[in-house]
């Protein structure tokens, strides 16, 4: 199929753009089981009803652990050690079908997964979130971007920008320190690893933003980026993630 498209494109068009373009032309089939998709999406109704939805106890970090709940709508951690971001919207738990879709996108550049995850997030956000001035995908360091060839947060943010008709800002924030992978680190190690990793453009003017990422585990990454944005003059920072890790 990609060979067919190459006859209609310029030799200068990168293959990654060709693959992304074709992913939007293929008829909808469920990514998880292969059955026919519903609502023109790559997900069947049966698999959709089995997605592990998140029921957050804490509005600030989307924690769903009732043992840490508090009557104020915040978990004990956010009450005693509040993060720099103000709210978190995480429609799913990082488990089963959602975990598979995120892994397919993150490590296999599966663009239909980005489209599906973005559409599912948009459905949730239209019902729950107050929209910001712009959305900002969590940036990768240039070395990590070159290694992977793409940023999964950008791919989901593109879909959200289109579906929610919101400006997408991919240039105001940068990750200027090349940190180690967060996977396998505990909360304290994650906080130390990501500390002072982000920079914000001096021309940044937005007062209310939403940070887009695939998964929130401890929240250390978005905390550091939100802190940099607050120092730059931003008043309110939401976090939009597809899934909250248990």
**Strand tally, please?**
7
Helix/strand order, N-terminal first: HHHHEEHHEHHEHEEHE
Output the structural class: alpha/beta
Principal-axes shape call: globular
In helices, the fraction of residues equals: 25-40%
What value does the Rg take, in angstroms?
18 Å
What is the makeup of the main sheet?
5 strands, parallel
Low-pLDDT stretches are 1-10
CATH architectural category: 3-Layer(aba) Sandwich
CATH topology: Rossmann fold
Number of helices: 10
Q: Compute the number of structural domains.
A: 1
CATH class: Alpha Beta
Strand content: 5-15%
Cα(first) to Cα(last) distance is: 40 Å
Mean pLDDT: 87
Describe the structure.
It is a single chain. By secondary structure, this protein is of the alpha/beta class. The protein has a single domain (48-184, 193-244), classed as Rossmann fold, CATH 3.40.50. Helix content is 39%, strand content 13%. Strands 1, 2, 3, 6 and 7 form a five-stranded parallel β-sheet that branches. The chain has a two-stranded antiparallel ribbon with strand order 4-5. Strand 6, helix 10 (220-231) and strand 7 form a beta-alpha-beta unit. Helix 5 crosses helix 6 (111-128) and helix 6 (111-128) crosses helix 8 (152-164). It is globular and about 50 Å long. Residues 1-10 have low confidence and may be disordered.
Characterize this entry briefly.
With 246 residues, the chain is an alpha/beta fold. The protein contains 10 helices and 7 strands.
